[in-house]
Each structure stands twice: as structure tokens, then as C-alpha cells.
């Protein structure tokens, strides 16, 4: 999903608007006709604008030449302001409201621009304004507001919009139908999603996939398999949905079986398929199959992006092949912090603490910003390697240099590190300074350290606290 920075004018928090939906469609006082584009170069200049101030100059020219009064020209200007990365939503709304005859293209564009900037409440508020101004609504309008409902989880509002869709006669639109199935599914209303599906006269691959994804997202494995088997045709999205579902519910062998069937039927896997497969293989420890997937990636020239690269090196790590994991890490050209974290974690869990520290230094040198997971991995590496001074230094860096507040996992690593070193005074000091209560994992690691160093008094205290927090943990 792409993320866009909102202009300052749109950062003000907004409460969900009341959606005014009448029981009957308002009279259409302005039949929509596509205005004839004017013969002018002004709009061509608008297409060349890369900055807001340039669009402002074109806007001024349109006012000077009275071209702003032309519906088509004003709508195109509003479109630039609404959807351009260099636009301004206030300007877009002002231009749209200035159009004498409300033009639904401009309003749809305004809604689209707000959705692009994640202003979902505002998008629905604009729909409300369209109703009040008697702007004719079309399938594009409803597709946009249904997307807003998906993002906001407005379950009841979906049914209200659905009623409006039926009243306005656009329920047979393929895009509307598929969006309705999707939004009902996302909100957990699979009965309603199925009703839309069953009433559809034309079922395309997107319709089937929408229903399939709905059942998968709601955890109904029986209907996932039933719908999948009934599909008249499948694409890579269909296969990925079923494979991802089995990975999600930890049925890794079934995921691999579906992947094998996918190959037999001649469907080419994509990056999403391979990430899910590597996840399943990692949990099963099926190294031979993991090597096969890696060979497939190389043979077909598939780029190791941050997701696929992380999945591949994580698989090798869980299978105990650190050298192959490092190969996958080196082959990953575009490394995100998740890729770095996966490699540091792999080295830490395989007792290669000094290499993990070297890699952390590479993170800092690459100007990649470490996150809280990075510090969990490096503190874990210090704990396994008995590197007390280094661990204390990294723990201090978190807040002072990177502004990351330590959470329970970071404190747990410190308790484990100090306990393994027999520094029980520092352990108690750290526990007292924590902003949260010690959890069962901390007490368990402290109890283990007390056993090693024969600290019976503190060990007894740790044991009693552990019994309170985890009475069924017989491993302690």
C-alpha cells in the first residue's frame, strides 16, 4: 500500500460525518452532460505543472481569461488540486464548489483525492454534500464511498449505501458488485456478501476472488476450499488466497500441496506465492524444498525484494543454514529494516553474536533507521554471546539516540543478559526501574540464571512469581 503525506490543511482530525441518505433519490435538477473541452493551451500548461505554485499561476490565468467559468476547465483544475502529489485539497474543494452547475466528475475526483490522502471521513462527507446539492451519483461515486467504508469499517453504512445503489439502478455494475462483496467480507458480513454473489448475473474472476478472499479472511476453511474447487477459472490471486489461508491457520503441509497443484495446472507463481511458500517451508523445516524455491527464483530472474528476501533468509535461518541465509541477504538488492532485522535475528539465534553486532553497525552506516525489532534482535545477540557491556550500550542507545522507548521484550533481553552474567544486583535494579511489571518470561529467565549461579534466595522469589503468573508452566 502506498502512503502519501497529507498537506497541513488536511491534518486536522475529523469525526465521522452523519451520512444523509434519503429514502428516495433526490430529483436530478442537473442532467450530466460531458462539457465540450475548450480549444485552449491553458489545460496543456496544467498538465506540465510539477509544483503547487505553478498550478496557482495557471489558475490565475484561467480566472483572467474567464476560462474558470467553463465546467470542463474548472473540473480539470480541481482534479489537479485533488489528486496530484503537489495539490491542495482546500483549493480543489473551492474550485469544485465554484462550478455553477454541479458536475459529478469534479465531485468524484474530489472524493478520490481524499481517499488517496487517507482522508476517509472527509470522502464520505463529500458524498453527503453531493446528496445535498443534488449532484447525480454514478457507479464511480459508489465505488469510491464503498472503498471508504472498507477502510473505516462502517458496517451499517454499507447497507445504507447498498440501498442507494439499488434505488439508483447501478447494482448490476461489475465494479460495484465486486466492491460490495469485498466490503461486506472485510466487515465480517459473509451472509450479505454471499447474497450479492448469488444474485449476480455475470460472475467474473474478480467476483469469485472477492468471495474466496472473504471466506479466507473470516477463517471459514470449508467454504474456502468449496468456492476454490467450484471456480470455473483461477488466476494467481485465487491460488495465493488459498495458500495464504493455509499458512495463516498453520496448515503448512496443505499449503505446499496446493502449491504443487498450482504448478501441475500451469499457473506461474509470483512473489506473494513464494513468500507464503517459504513461510510454510520454514515452519516445516523442509530445507530441500526451500533450496528448490531459491533455485526457482534464480532461474526465473525474480528480484529478491525486501519481502521475498526476508522470507528466504528466514527460511534458511530456521533450517540452520546460516551461510545460505547470508547469501540470500547479499542477493537482496532493496533491503528494508525488516530484511536487516531478519538477518540480525538469524545470527543471534544461531549464537553468532559478534557477526550480529557487525551487521548492526552496517545498519547504522547504511543510514537505515533501526526500529524496536532491531534492538530486540541485537540485545538478544548480546544475551546469547554474554556481551554485557555491548548490551548495556545498545540499551542506552535506544532512547538517547533513536528515541525508542524500551518495551517488555527489550527489558526481558536485559534481564536475561544480566542474569546469565550473574549480575543479580543489576537485575533487581533493572526490574525496579521498569515502567511495567515483570512478565512470566522475565521471571523464567531469572530463575534459570539463579539455577546456574546457585542464587537460591532470588531463585525462590522468581519461582514463586512464576507460579503466580504461569501456574501451568511445568517446564520451570
From TrEMBL:
GO terms for molecular function: RNA binding. It comes from the Eukaryota. PPR repeats lie at residues 103-137, 204-234, 235-269, 336-370. GO terms for biological process: RNA modification. Keywords: Repeat. NCBIfam families: PPR. This is Pentatricopeptide repeat-containing protein. It comes from Rhododendron simsii (Sims's rhododendron).
